Every structure is written in C-alpha cells, then in structure tokens.
C-alpha cells in the first residue's frame, strides 16, 4: 500500500481547492483504476485564508508569511510532494521552495509541459491580473519557445470580475459566455490553444471549445497522481 501523502496549499480560493480534490478522485478512478477506499491517494489540503492579491501586490508579503508558516507545518509530515491550488500564488513558489524539504510540483510547469507535448507554438492565456502582470506563464512558455497571447486591459478587468464571482460561489451563465468571447478574441489573434491560468476558471469555462483547452486544475491533478501511483 502506498503510504505517501500529497500535500496541497489551498483556500485560494476554496471553490477551486474543492474542485482540485474532486478532480483527484475522478482521475484516480479514470486513469488508475481506483475502486476501494485504499486505492485512492491520501491527501492533506491545508485551506488557508490568505489575503487577496488577485490584482494587487499590497498584501503579497502577508500572504507569503502565512504560506511559509503552513509549509513549515506540513514539512513535519511524511509528504510525497506539495502543490499550490492557485496559479497566482506561484509568484511565491521560489520563496516557498527555499523553506521546504518536501518538493513542490509547479502547476505552471506542468501546464507548459502539456502545451509542449501538443506542439502548440502560440497559446492564449486567461488568468488573474496578477498572474498576467507577473508573466508567470509568459516567461515559462517563452523559455520553451512558445508565444503567449494575452487579453487586452479591458478584458483583464472583466476576467477579474468573473473570477471574483466564482470565488463568491456565483457560477453565472453570462460569465461563461463572456469567457468564451474573450477566448474567441485570442483565437482570432492567432492562439492555437487556450490556457485556463486561474483555478477558478475551469469551474465555469465551457466543457467544449473549438481549441484545445489547458485546464490547470486537471493538469496539476494528473501530475500529482502520476507521482503518487508511480
């Protein structure tokens, strides 16, 4: 029996963390033939109410302090790996890695590898204002010779409101339609795939779209499970 444990820094936001856990269960059944209780991975999700830095740096330091404390707590457990259930919080990943003996699995790196695997050279990115401003995906994609098309300033503001609606538990049909329109605009500008670079977006983005959609939650979940069942 596999006694290793997957650790997840969650709560950013809670709906997305809940969705990540459900995805871990669903993919365990789909790809790893999990049937009984002891077939499924042991998972610790530390839901942390960190200050909001979706669009502002003002509370980034406070968020880092909280996450560092939780990482130190989780390092006392025999974890297989750690991950962050939030794309934007990956701006703090290097700082967290410096204070952790447990290896982190980067959601962004896993998404980039998925894009590489499909030989897409130009992708569109949907995400929070901070994720786009920090260039978390753009830099990682550029290092792999992949170009990124980002929304314009007005679309980024609209994306923020859609994300905040999901955080508040509002899954609105008009928001799903809005996301489709923004994705369509990136497609017209040359995108061959769309990255959902925010863990709230898979909760509302249509299940079917004309381009390949890279859903960061699902990609992270599968990466964690591959390590667990290895």
Care to describe what's here?
The chain is of the alpha/beta class and 230 residues long. It folds into 2 domains: 5-105 and 218-229, Rossmann fold; 109-216, 3-Layer(aba) Sandwich (Rossmann fold). It is built from 9 helices and 8 strands. The strands form 2 sheets. Strands 2-1-3-4 form a 4-stranded parallel sheet, with helices on both faces. Strands 6-5-7-8 form a 4-stranded parallel sheet, sandwiched between helices. Strand 1 (5-10), helix 1 and strand 2 form a beta-alpha-beta unit. Helix 4 (107-117) crosses helix 9 (216-229) and helix 7 (153-167) runs antiparallel to helix 8. It starts with a strand and ends with a helix.
- CATH topology name of the largest domain, in short, is Rossmann fold
How many β strands by DSSP? 8
**For the terminal residues, how far apart are their CA atoms?**
12 Å
- Helix content, binned percent: 40-55%
CATH arch. level architecture of the largest domain: 3-Layer(aba) Sandwich
Tally of contiguous helical segments = 9
How are strands sequenced across the largest beta sheet?
2-1-3-4
Question: How many separate domains?
Answer: 2
CATH class of the largest domain: Alpha Beta
- Low-confidence stretches are none
* Structure class: alpha/beta
Oligomer class: single chain
> How would you characterize the largest beta sheet?
4 strands, parallel
Strand content: 15-25%
Q: What are the secondary-structure elements, in order, as H or E?
A: EHEHEHEHEHHEHHEEH
Mean pLDDT: 95
Rg, please? 17 Å
- What overall form do the CA principal axes indicate? globular
